[in-house]
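Please predict the structure of the following assembly.
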Amino acid sequence: MRTKTIAGNWKMFKNLQQSEELILGLTKALDFSLGSVKVIICPPFTSLGLAGTLVKGSPIALGAQNMHAEDEGAFTGEISPTMLKSVGCEYVILGHSERRQYFQETNESINKKAKKAIASGLIPIICVGETLEEREKNITDLIVSTQVRGCLKEIGAADVEKTIIAYEPIWAIGTGKTATPQQAEEVHLLIRKLVGQLYSWASAEKVVIQYGGSVKPENAKELLSQPNIDGALVGGACLKADSFATIVKSATLS
Ligand code: 13P
């Protein structure tokens, strides 16, 4: 049984005060039984320290949105995995399409970060997904498979089983266009089969594969009830406590 995992990617939203309000709102809104559902929030770096203090003892786990692949050094403007650990992070989003697009991240650099994250005791949430153009050219499978292979290179089976893969079709991010549950399920199954080929079916069955791209309270339940959709990576809808809590609730029901 895979743990349904709902993560909120706050992106570059919320200053310190707004972060505090959102986290306090969330701890109130998550007043129902979460069962085995895992909830993760990924605020911006400037809010992680405070967030770490606020979520302590709550069912909310903390993640970052990026990290550098070294523990320390002369890398102006970067944040290391050990720094993330020191403020209570357990997860780190790696290779989000926005980082691939605006910050030149590649499967190779994401793989380097993923290996470092694992070695540092952080669970990577590795993002993959095709552009609209690639989907229209019918090369979604090739693109996503290449990303998964590249990002998982040299990661052992025991670690891959703990790694989260987030399928986020770029055309569905922030556009209001969601992949249909069938479209998403198809790619999720492809990813799972690929992990099965690269490792073993036993490993593939353990990997949590999240869907991301315009997940909202209105569509979460149907997406999350697909057999290979094990959770969601939520952008816009995680910035309000109520809508994020409603998505979490859908996970407890699906
Ligand atoms: P939206 O939910 O705003 O489409 O963003 C998805 C996303 O990029 C999460 O990482």
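The mean pLDDT is 97. Residues 5-253 form a domain with the TIM Barrel fold (CATH 3.20.20.70).
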